[in-house]
Amino acid sequence: MLKPVPIERVVPGMWFHRLGGSGYHHAFVKNGFLLEARDIELLAQGGVDELIIDTGRGLDLPEPPPPAGGGDGPGETGAAAVPLPAAPAVLAKASAIEVEIQHARRLVQQGKEQVIALFGDARLGRAIDPESAMPLVDAINASVGRHSDAFISVARLKSHDEYTYMHSVAVCALMLALARRLGLPEAEVRDAGAAGLLHDLGKAAMPLAVLNKPGALTDEEFRVMKAHPQRGWEMLKVGGSAPEGVFDVALHHHEKIDGSGYPHGLAGEAIGRMAKMGAVCDVYDAITSNRPYKKAWGPAESLQRMAAWKGHFDPEVFKAFVRSIGIYPVGALVRLESDRLAVVLDQGESSLLTPKVRVFFHARKRELLFIKDLDLGAPGCADRIVGLESPEKWNFPHLEKLWLAQ
């Protein structure tokens, strides 16, 4: 007999017939099988909320216990209800990145709300004290220190209507991770985070019709937008004292090494190190975010494209940036030598080339697989990454659901 069962009531020994609801999911499998604890855990992690079980081939749902205080049948004593098994998601101990992703999701939301308030004050002409941003910077710094991949990956996910605010939060985290990778003193790491959080404050002075335009800017609109670094620098100068790097990033994060940037056309060593860092972090988050006029590029694809832009970034700063987020950042879609597709879950402990991945699709057979986590750096692992893939090419519009459900 086929029966729908909520995932929280599924227990080992039941026979998986198919998924409930629409029956389509990234954890879809063709053939039924006897469920084990790890299978249930992976299905729950993947967002499955209902299964269809076959009670003729496996366990059925237990009968509900009689009500306390007695019943109609002889010998009923009103015993306490038998507790249900633990929810699948807690059957195994969470990893460090799994724990930090959940914390990062809450912190990202808090950060967005604080940045919205900052921009609101700036639009009303209120002075912005850079020091007021430091509690948020310190909280993000603590998260990045525990596991940088978690916060950076979560902050990358944003809708186009919240881009302006979430972008500031994301660049803050990227600057913190990059400063750590460069080995800067802790005081300068905090300065880098503050610079990232406040780098786009000048956009608060831009006309909303231009700032929120759902399409590419005209030449005249772009000329208006190019004034935001100068306006941000002015706002910060009026607001109070701050480390010089905070002002420098606000004013010069659109400068390029070859001198083709703005507002001052600085080149080479005329651009300060903190501004060089801001340029890399600003662009990376921009191109990995969905915009009204452009779909996001994948994290690994974005690094490849940025590497090809000669004259844009300082080479040493860019190399450090790649090391800070990984050659295959969390969320990247990769093809394995086995022709399976997987999404990156975490960086490898011994090499940037051997991350932990979640396998879910067979590229050659073009069929979805039962999801499986694989540590490419583990002894005896025979598979390896052979290339990057485009989520758009494979029509995986919501790939983040795979790595967020850790």
Topology summary:
Layout: E1 2-6, E2 15-19, E3 33-34, H1 37-45, E4 50-54, H2 96-123, H3 134-156, H4 163-181, H5 186-198, H6 208-211, H7 219-225, H8 228-239, H9 244-252, H10 273-287, H11 299-308, H12 315-325, E5 333-336, E6 340-346, E7 356-362, E8 367-375, E9 385-388, H13 400-404
Antiparallel strand pairs: 1-4, 2-3, 2-4, 5-6, 5-9, 6-7, 7-8
Helix pairs in contact: 2-3, 2-4, 3-4, 3-5, 4-5, 4-10, 4-12, 5-9, 8-9, 9-10
Describe this structure in words.
By secondary structure, the chain is an alpha+beta fold. It folds into 3 domains: 1-60; 96-325, Hypothetical protein af1432 (Orthogonal Bundle); 333-404, no CATH class. 41% of the residues lie in helices and 12% in strands. It contains 13 helices and 9 strands. The strands form 2 sheets. Strands 8-7-6-5-9 form a 5-stranded antiparallel β-sheet, with no helix packed on it. Strands 1-4-2-3 form a 4-stranded antiparallel β-sheet, with no helix packed on it. A hairpin with a 3-residue loop joins strand 5 and strand 6 (340-346). Helix 4 (163-181) runs antiparallel to helix 5 and helix 8 packs antiparallel against helix 9 (244-252). The longest helix has 28 residues, at 96-123. The radius of gyration is 25 Å and the shape is elongated. The two termini are 32 Å apart. Mean pLDDT is 85; it is low at 22-28 and 65-93.
